[in-house]
Specification:
five-stranded mixed β-sheet, signal, SsuA/THI5-like domain-containing protein, 46% helix, SsuA/THI5
Length: 328
Amino acid sequence: MLSRRGLIATAALLSLPGLRPARAASDTIRLGVLPFGTASWEAAVIKARKLDEANGFTLEIVKLAGNDAARIAFQGKQLDTIVGDLIWAARLRSEGRGVRFVPYSTTEGALMVPADSPIKSLKDLAGRKLGVAGGALDKNWILLKAQGKETGDIDIETAAQLAFGAPPLLTQKLETGELDAALLYWQYCARLEAKGFRRLVSADDIMRAFGAQGPVALIGYLFEQQAVAERREAVQGFARASMAAKELLANEPEAWEIVRPLMAAEDTATFASLKRNFLDGIPRRPVPAERADGERIFATLARLGGDALTGGAKSLPDHLYLDASGNG
């Protein structure tokens, strides 16, 4: 599940004295964030507005180089929580790790094309150069392929000219015309929208086509069950602070002054697009509704992605979700 490069890099990272075991202080929640990840936005608001103190814990922010580093640090119990994928969380729990999932965001990626592109539907991808971020087992790619076959009447994997790569590179190639379309993560989609590019189809559109009744949070904060059991008040406090930070960003425009330096938004249009997409992704549904739709999407991904994606699990494990009060 992790690259060899990630293992080596993170082994060195974990040897640093600053990254000590997560349970050094029972009232401290150690959150791992990526350089340009939106979890750092939320964490900055929590610290600036002292939402951690108000909710009975101290938030400690640990900056990590990438997803591999975050996953290894979490699995090694060097962190209390990271933002992770529902599919990965379900796989870990199915394998015996007591991972719990707190919905974080419903904002997902999309298939982007230039504003004046002749591509109007998935069928029009035939013969086109298509960039795909995240690799062959990326959930958005699996869902897009399924959408093409089952409702779009096209086998995108064979009909299009595929190029897998890192999101920044694919974004650049789409902007220069070297690609006709690109399936990208939401932050890159938001930046392209600010430049006039348009979404052909979003992951949310596809999930609804496969039966989702509302926006689905496929990413969330991950906690170990042991931490939930032993440090329930701190975990509950973190969940409350997370939602409070989101509400501040949704209702107090001045709160974005805390976040903007972290956004790498080079102009007002980019800032506005990133802000809009972030706010649109705030989970608003109760955990049972999230779970029901999560089951539908997981079953689809298990059927199409197979054991390589889900580790053999065919459905979401019991007691995976943790609601904002620490129950569930």
